[in-house]
Specification:
The complex is a heterodimer of chains A (about 130) and B (about 525).
Chain A lengths: L28 E5 L2 E3 L4 H13 L4 E5 L3 E4 L1 H17 L2 E5 L3 H9 L7 E3 L2 H5 L8
Parallel strand pairs in A: 1-3, 2-4, 3-5, 5-6
Helix pairs in contact in A: 1-2
Chain B lengths: L15 H15 L4 E9 L5 E9 L11 H4 L4 H4 L7 H12 L3 E8 L8 E11 L2 E8 H17 L2 E7 L5 E3 L1 H6 L11 H6 L3 H17 L3 E8 L5 E12 L5 E10 L1 H38 L7 E3 L2 E8 L10 E7 L5 E8 L3 H20 L4 H13 L9 E9 L4 E7 L5 E4 L2 E4 L19 E4 L5 E5 L11 H15 L5 H9 L9 E7 L1
Antiparallel strand pairs in B: 1-2, 1-5, 3-4, 4-5, 6-7, 6-10, 8-9, 9-10, 11-12, 12-21, 13-14, 14-15, 15-16, 16-19, 17-18, 17-20, 20-21
Classes of the chains: A alpha/beta (about 130), B alpha+beta (about 525).
């Protein structure tokens, strides 16, 4: 009996250089839908809702902005805050489907460089990047 | 109703005796007050009573139709009051005729004519006399209505009356008085002396004196006093009383009214407190306005004239959203630096109110300080960013700004931008937004990157630095507002004071949602 493995034997012997394992993992996504106008007056409510969503600890938090008709600096600040909270909690935050007004706001303020933005809810939920860790 | 009825002289079965009787009845009736009539029966073929005729009436008699005595005489009862033969009254009349008993009853009558009360109630009395009936009646419901009205008035006015006989000592209180004093009816009324003994505090002495004077010399009284009810409540009661005197001038009867004026007194008290509060508020507001004005002069003085800096003419428009505060999150700087260059800044802290003002002041003074000490512009922004991130603030302040330095020797404007709308350059009948290096707003992320941009200004150029309050409208993409600004700036470029025209065109006084700050720079 030889100790030397036969390299041409592919029936799962020792000296394996690459081990591939496949594991099923459910990605829990939470969609937070913002509809209407978000401004200074609605700031507190928005903060609270986003904080709750982050605290629920999903893998992926999608903020659906499609039904939002108005978003000013306080709304933007709420989203920035949520982004910080999400990062600290290991939650992946994605902004989905912003309308033209909000897209321009993100561009002018340069925040499109720090947010992950997807054109639609479907695209956002389809983000295939798995959480680290 | 047949008013043109035939008036006949009735002599159904009479003779001289009947006529003599009628004459006496007529004489007696003529001297009676109220409504009294003498009715004589009329008989049918089988001898039954089919009608009555009004043979005589007292002078003041008035029926439901308003017809008086003279017009009633000679009338047929059934003819004048159709349907009366179906009533209890008629049966009563027949009964009186047959048995000689006295009938007392009520009659409710409904008449269909216009101007006559639709439904009225009478008390009626009928007795036999000389082969006929003496009938008297009295309107019941008028009196009842009066009673109801009086009771209602007392209840609504929280008022009741008192009547006291000083000779035999009886006192009567109307129901409402018991209610005013919260007293059980079973306990009966109290005298004024007893009431004044129950008066609260300072009222007591004055009350007792007034009652004494009323009872001794009949001096009328009108006083309000506090009286403690069973329980903690003190009610304010007004008593108005006067006396009737005898031949010697000594009071023998007291008539008076009590009224619960507690709510009125409370309302008066409240009103007084409100007035005092309002006055205090007014002086507070005046002090606040004064402070706000001085604060503005210190933190962000707004020049009324055009500033001339480093070869540029600068006009400032500053319109905070909250007028009272005179300050907001927007700010500007336009100063000459030690090296002769001009510092031009426009900034916008998120939010309004005092918190935004505080952050604004921090940024404004820090930026100015760094510019004066020659810090490169991108570094200034990075430092301000760090400053904002480390300000302990629950809501997380952010701010946008454009910071520019103009060097007159080379006519060059260098600027940096943090999340702020781009500068607008108007040159030779063209208005365009200057391409700017990107840069995220301050306070959003720990490691932003800022880059300076430059443009050379030519004589005749106009440059606008502004905050988004000038271009943002609800439900409108910002690009539309920017386009509108470009068009407006172009339109006013050749006017003597372009900034005035631009602000007038774009800022709607009644539809504002944000602070507005604009720098208009021209070379």
């Amino acid at each position: 009996m030889s100790d030397q493995p036969d390299r041409h034997d592919t029936a799962g012997q020792a000296d394996v250089r690459l081990r591939v394992t496949a594991r099923e993992r459910a990605v829990r996504a939470l969609v937070c839908r913002l509809a209407g106008e978000a401004d200074h007056e609605t700031r507190a409510a928005l903060d609270e809702a986003l904080a709750e969503a982050v605290a629920a600890g999903p893998d992926l938090l999608v903020v659906d902005l499609a039904p939002l008709t108005f978003c000013d600096s306080s709304c933007l600040n709420a989203l920035l805050r949520a982004r910080e909270d999400a990062e600290a909690a290991g939650v992946w935050l994605v902004l989905a489907g912003p309308g033209p007004q909000i897209r321009r706001l993100l561009a002018i303020t340069g925040t499109d460089q720090v947010f992950t933005v997807r054109a639609s809810l479907q695209a956002a939920v389809g983000v295939s990047r798995l959480p680290h860790g | 109703m047949a008013d043109r009825e035939q008036v006949e002289e009735p002599v159904p079965g009479g003779g001289p005796a009947a006529e003599a009787g009628l004459a006496v009845v007529r004489e007696v009736l003529a001297g009676l007050p109220g409504s009294v009539v003498f009715l004589r029966p009329e008989f049918g073929p089988s001898g039954e009573v089919v009608d009555f005729r009004i043979a005589a009436a007292s002078p003041d008699a008035v029926d439901i139709g308003g017809r008086d005595g003279a017009r009633l005489v000679g009338r047929s009862v059934l003819g004048t009051y159709p349907g009366i033969d179906t009533t209890d009254l008629w049966r009563g009349y027949l009964d009186v005729l047959a048995t000689g008993a006295v009938h007392e009853g009520e009659l409710e009558y409904e008449e269909a004519g216009a101007g006559i009360p639709h439904r009225s109630r009478f008390g009626v009395r009928a007795s036999a006399c000389q082969g006929g009936l003496i009938v008297s009646w009295d309107r019941l419901d008028a009196g009842e209505r009066e009673q109801r009205r009086l009771a209602l008035m007392q209840r609504l006015g929280r008022m009741g009356w008192v009547d006291r006989d000083l000779v035999n000592g009886t006192i009567v209180w109307s129901d409402e008085v018991y209610s005013i004093f919260g007293r059980d009816r079973a306990l009966g009324p109290m005298t004024l002396e007893e009431l004044s003994a129950r008066a609260e505090g300072e009222d007591r002495a004055a009350m007792e004196e007034a009652v004494r004077r009323l009872l001794k010399s009949g001096e009328p009284m009108d006083r309000t006093f506090g009286v403690r009810l069973p329980g903690p409540e003190v009610r304010q009661v007004r008593v108005v009383a006067e006396t009737e005197t005898d031949v010697h001038g000594d009071p023998v009867r007291v008539h008076g009214f009590f009224q619960d004026v507690t709510t009125a007194k409370h309302a008066e008290q409240l009103l007084l407190e409100h007035r005092q509060a309002a006055l205090a508020q007014q002086s507070l507001l005046a002090a606040e306005r004064d402070l706000a004005a001085r604060l503005q002069d210190t933190l962000l003085p707004v020049p009324q004239q055009t500033l001339e800096l480093a070869g540029l003419s600068v006009d400032v428009a500053y319109l905070p959203l909250q007028k009272g505060l005179r300050l907001g999150g927007d700010w500007y700087s336009a100063i000459e630096l030690p090296d002769g260059s001009a510092l031009l800044v426009v900034g916008d802290v998120a939010g309004h109110g005092l918190d935004a003002v505080a952050t604004m002041a921090l940024l404004r003074f820090t930026a100015k300080g760094m510019a004066i000490t020659g810090t490169p512009l991108p570094t200034v922004l990075a430092n301000l960013n760090t400053l904002l991130l480390h300000t302990p603030d629950r809501t997380g302040s952010t701010a946008t700004m454009i910071m520019a330095v103009y060097q007159p020797a080379v006519s060059r404007l260098t600027w940096v931008r943090a999340g702020h709308p781009p500068p607008l350059l108007v040159r030779d009948d063209r208005a365009r937004f200057l391409p700017t290096a990107g840069g995220i707003l301050l306070g959003a992320t720990p490691s932003p990157r800022y880059e300076a941009s430059t443009v050379d200004l030519l004589p005749g150029d106009h440059l606008l630095l502004y905050t988004d309050g000038l271009v943002e409208r609800p439900n409108e993409p910002i690009d539309e507002g920017l386009a509108r600004l470009a068009a407006t700036a172009l339109a006013h470029a050749r006017t003597p004071r372009p900034l005035d025209g631009i602000v007038r065109s774009l800022v709607a006084p009644h539809a504002r949602r944000d602070d507005v700050c604009v720098l208009h720079i021209s070379r």
